[in-house]
Fold these 4 entries.
Entry 1:
Amino acid sequence: MCDSMHFYFLSLCLCVILLISLVGFFIVLYVRFSGYLQATGYSFFSVLLNTGRYGEALLFSMLDSRKSQKYIIPNVYLNTYSGALTEIDLILITSKGLFIFESKNYSGKIYGSEHKLYWDVYYGRKKYQIYNPVLQNRTHVNALIHNFPMLRTKNVYSFVVFGNGSVLKVTSNEIVIHRKMLSSVLDRLGQSLPDVFDLDEMALLFATLKLCSNPEHSVKKRHIEYVSSLKKKHSQ
């Protein structure tokens, strides 16, 4: 009887410790994601349950933790040259320029080059393809220049950021990195790049681009329909 009571007590203590640890983990994660949640309007659990949003939230929090003066804008929708709608995952505005991020929170091995239309992803025994994120982000940069002709191409930088659980077998002259490499790459760029925007210009860019962030549902629906039509076109 004593042994069974002792086992029950230990089990109960273990459950309580695990529960407290789990609650603590979610609290820490919620605080870490608070800036992203506020900027996007997403709920905490919708981010946890969506791989793409989770990766963007991690990326946003890393950028937000940087000490330099900056603005971060998620989910920016812009028209391209052709009139189609494209979505930029994250834009970082600093005195050094605009940094355009395409977040790919994938696991597995990724094979591709900047000139190949589709990249191959191997996860376990499964293989599937994704649209070339370098080309995807190039479209984002071009759309930005198209809508804001006062910007110079040389002051806009493309970043494709993959999850740390992936293995990258990619050849590209543009920046394609793991999330864990982001801070060091930005630090190196920050040391080598000249200042091109003052604080007033940064604030103006933020206020203008913010108007293109998190649009009404009909705009998002139009973007989703366009992406779906592209997938159907290239799968034929």
Entry 2:
Amino acid sequence: MQKVLTPQGNYKGYQTKMLLEISISQSDCGDLTLFQTIQEVIGRINLGNWIDFHRQRRDAYDPVALLTVILFAYARYGYASLRQLEEMSRYDLRCRLILQGQTPSYKTYQRFINHQLKGSIEELSHQVYLCIQDHKALEAAILMIDGTKFEANANKMTFFWGAWVKRYRPRHWQKAMEIVRQLNRYFETQGIAVRYSILKEPTLKYLIEIDERLDRWLQEVNAIRKGRGIHPVAKLKRELGTIAKSLFSYALAKDILGERNSFSKTDPDATMMHMKYDYYNHTNVFKPGYNVQIGVNNGYIAYSYISPDVNDMKTAIPFLEGYRRQFGEYPKRVVTDAGYGSYGNYAYAQLHQIQAILKYPGYQKKKEKVTEKNQFQLLHMKRNEKGVPVCPQGYDFEAEKVTVDMKSGVPRTTIHYRNQHCEGCSLRSRCTTSKKGRSARISPQLEKYQKQVDAVLETEEGRKFMAQRSSQAEGAFADIKKNFGYSLLRRRGESGVKVELGLVILGYNLRHYHQRKMKTNPDTMN
């Protein structure tokens, strides 16, 4: 028996209570359907590939129980912080049941996510997807691709532009070489046999070597100049050190940038991107973020890719290559919106025998009725029997030159046309402002790809695929961002963002699988 102080409003009373262990059973937990679904999925996959059970401490928490709680939290709430996981472990009876009464702290979940899940989140997502996906959908391998931008956990005013390196790095090097010239002039006037070379290319190693030599020389001189103030060479050395620090920061920024044109100092892996339209400031908000691409098959997210590119066109090929590494083969069919329709993507899909239903920019405009206002656009101009464009006045364009471009990695042939009958034309001011006459560029192979896409989209099957892409791929982002309010990343760095988004996607797939399961057979969990 133990006396426990019971606080009251008007007096202090002592009440005796017995210390009894309170057991928790499934009947006490109420609705366990989602929790049981997650336990069922975890039981069907081999966790030994990611969790080393043999190296676990005897007093360690059960890793399967920790994983179950994490997946349940992400499936139930869309996202869960470490503190939320700790709170659920203490007060949620479902979590207490799987943890057998243990209460892991937020540090425990942090270590588990960083050490166990960070390096294996992609493979874990892949195995869960294979476990819950329908076999017919796996064989069909139809991928609905869409992308969105997630705002990074970084200050929007900590941007760094790649143009700054190109502009200011040479200027700082010129200042450094000017200081070296002043040093040479000083040593020459003093009759000291010291001279440093003037280099055109910035080399930090060279500046460090000069600084070390000047430091040794000044140590000898300072013994003689005691009480006579700072040495002129010491002043120049100090200025040279300041410039060297700036050059080092630019060299470091150049390595961080890679092929990007910007990054955030708070999160160097994040790229400055235009987010959605800001209705309050009436401008596009420019913030650090990540471009997240997902491929949805039969309502489940099959694969995700995090890209620093602000344009979706450049993400298609890396996305499909990552999908091949994950699944061992390319998808049989890919459906996207107009943000992915480029010559390089069409050629890549043809090379790897992928049926690419990629809308292209201008697809909707091409279907518009020709009017007096838009008749001067190239896509609304008529073509003769050779495929040469004909202007609204009925004059054929003439070929000027043929160029081959390799920017997309595959040769792209472009024919450059110019109309020689613009002189004196009454419609010239509405058609072109060029002094040489109206010009046009046509890529025959690109137009061939676009005609193939037009033929597919005009069929009932093509329209069905585009409708499914809108509901499945865009619907997945709508559910994650709007329904569960997850649009801002919490972790920093590409590895942290990858594990965070991986858990969010796992939660989405498990939630979607549970909803389908309950819809088809509501009595399965009773």
Entry 3:
Amino acid sequence: MRIGVMTGGGDSSGINAVLRTIVTQADRNGDEVYGILRGWEGLLLGNLKRLTLENTAHIMYAGGTMIGSSRTNLFKVENGFDTALEVADKFNLDAIIAIGGDDTLGVADHFCSLGLKAVGLPQTIDNDVGGSDYCIGFDTAVTRIVEDIRSLKTTSASHGQDVVVETMGRETGWLAAVSGLITEAEAIVIPEMSISFDAVVAKIADAHQKGNNGCIIVVAEGCELEGCERIEQVVDAFGHKKLAGIGYGLRDQLQRALGSTIRCHIMGYVARGGDATAYEVTRAAEFGREAYRMVKAGGFGKLIGYRNGRTMDTDLEEVRIKRYVTAELIERIAELY
């Protein structure tokens, strides 16, 4: 059996653990694995590489993806799906395991309707893919953010200056919510909650009155706050704005409202990189094993996800339903105000 595997969209730590696990499982059963280089782009151009035990050795904890990634949108490429199907046929691929977020997995779902057998794995630090309570990359990203906030706490306390920390997450606030709660940030602002700018000001002003002049304010990049301008950059191939700058906008407004100097720290791409955490590797390897098992069992058009404390599968089309921060976390954040 020949299995293609690809990663699309933004990378994260944990992907290589999936790749290594799939290769290991396939080797035990006499199957071949081909890495589709740079995501769907590789399937368009015929850029595939045989993955073996030798060339995937020592990658379990390594960050990034050894087969590369891109944001190629086959829906916007003329004859894109037809060309990709021809390449898959040329390489005699029996199935494809797609690793990525809702955009990448949405393409995989469409491939299934065209006859190309595919299985999906949720991978994004945003942790927002429908059909799974956990996405590959999230734990490592949260760990990176928590490490930075803990470091910022010491220097902000020393200088008596508050710090606004902006996290990634697009339209969801998973990274901001979890990292903010873990580090006991004074204020957390996420897209799923209607938190006014005045409420944030009141919270920080109250902290100052109680002697805390080194507050941490965590804000998700997708938030909209009245009077807080952002920098919006280019739009990617799937039509998503690369959001940036709400942290600076919030900082500027807070400085004017509080009359104090406030720092801003953008927790950007570093959250995607570096060695994966032990939990990440464990979960990713489990996803990889289940994806391979699903392919061998002929369970195509499925998403391998994690729900209610166990790995399970669901229909791949569920990735189109974005997963937002839970009511439980929202309630805990609301208690801050």
Entry 4:
Amino acid sequence: MFSRVRVSAPSHVHAGNYDIEGSIGRLYGTVGLALGEPRLTLEASPSHSVEVEGGSRRREAEDLARLYLDKVGSRGCRLEGVKIRIYEEIPAHVGLGSTTALALSIGSSIYRICGLEPLDLRELAVTAGRSLVSALGLYSFEQGGLIVDGGFVRGERRPPPLVFRAHVPGSVKVVVALPERPIAKILDIKRREDELLARMPPMDPSMAGWASRVVLLGIMANAAEGRWGEAARWMGEFNRRLGEYWAGEQGGIYCCSEVEEIVRAMVDAGAWSGLQSSWGPTVYGLTPARRAASVLEAARRAVERVGGGKVWVTSVDNVGAVISSF
């Protein structure tokens, strides 16, 4: 049993789902990227009770800790409680993958304290009810990079398989913007997400076919050959066209005019593409490193015009979570 475990987990951004038609027998299929910043960083140590210090989601973290304590108890680990200190956190419910990162970080730390190795991240995800539709958060935590999962099978309670993963070099930068004004709208959508998804019509087969072809030939093949400009441009077109499918629920191709303006500003400044992550309002631009400063400045100006928010530049995380035991 270890006395202290530290976990540093990446965030991630979503590019889209390539098959919501389902006639092949699988649904969704997700494309996305793990990000170096922001990160979730926490430390966990054995305790006589469940305690959480730091961060804005203490109740949720406590519930997750109790869930995993029950799980390790069923496997013979007599861990009475755990003290968790959260040093850095990923903004919640804005398209950066905060919830899966929190669950897997807490689960990994408790399992590691108990010496339950090797970690089965799929088991940890399913225990918390995560990664059953999209496994982008699971594979971002496990290994990072550019990720494509294979969608889920109806009625099966297991994460979609990883079908493609690529290391993204440091010559590719990601400029991320989080405008403040649309956050309330997105939080309302997130509260109603299950209802919204249940009433969405199946994707037109021609759209699912186009999206699947773009993922295979436009994104995966170009990434495999290191043609990052082409891969990024196809990711942007993929994201934009999928916005047409979701337009009835989010009010347009993008969630809001703020996101549309930021995407336009990034591309006009030289980014290969600009994308909305999930429901938004997080926006990200994929750009060659030599243009990152100009894209960053254009994004800052656009965010100021639409009411303020946060903007930063980062790289793709190609490692996944770093877990240290002491």
